[in-house]
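Supplementary Methods S3. Complex input for the adenosine-5'-diphosphate-bound model.
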Amino acid sequence: MIEFKSLSKQFGKSVVLDGIDLTIEKGEITVIIGPSGTGKSTLLRCVNFLEHPTAGEITVGDLTVDVNRASRAEILSLRRRTAFVFQNYALFANKTALENVAERLVVVDRWPKEKAYQRAQEILERIGLADKADAYPASMSGGQQQRVGIGRAMATGADVILFDEPTSSLDPEWVE
Ligand SMILES: Nc1ncnc2c1ncn2[C@@H]1O[C@H](COP(=O)(O)OP(=O)(O)O)[C@@H](O)[C@H]1O
Ligand SMILES: [Mg+2]
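Predicted complex, serialized as structure tokens:
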């Protein structure tokens, strides 16, 4: 599902990732641990070129990209295959849980509102938040807000979900 070959990333003279080789199979859940500042976020951000790697090859599904020859179309394609759950969940404070999950379907994928809300409701049911559909982020617990963030990632239909430090408030019963 994901493969890195000799992946490197430098910020100026600072080598943060030095020839990383890693293969992650479909269905695998892989956790990267290590002290603060060792490059965990940078590695995740390289998967979809939020950071442009310095050298190496990245594969997501059936797309392999040489980072020095990556075209705009290839980068967009990598981005479509991956979804990010950010550390602060990046929810819209003025939108309900349902609207947060449906937002992308309406704005990016241009689904009719009714269809998008129906799909968003199905996702909320799957992540155990059906009863919070009309709640705003400020009235939800950290773990619930995070699940809305996960619901948003699920709504993208991406093959891979990348989590940057998600565990602090994730309820164990929702880790599958
Ligand atoms: N945009 C950037 N410019 C320069 N240095 C950066 C940038 N982003 C991260 N770094 C540096 O790269 C190293 C790894 O950072 P990061 O990937 O955020 O680590 P982690 O997520 O493991 O805590 C750190 O030394 C950090 O200062
Ligand atoms: Mg980090």
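The longest strand covers residues 14-24. The helical segments are 40-47, 72-81, 97-107, 113-126, 142-155.
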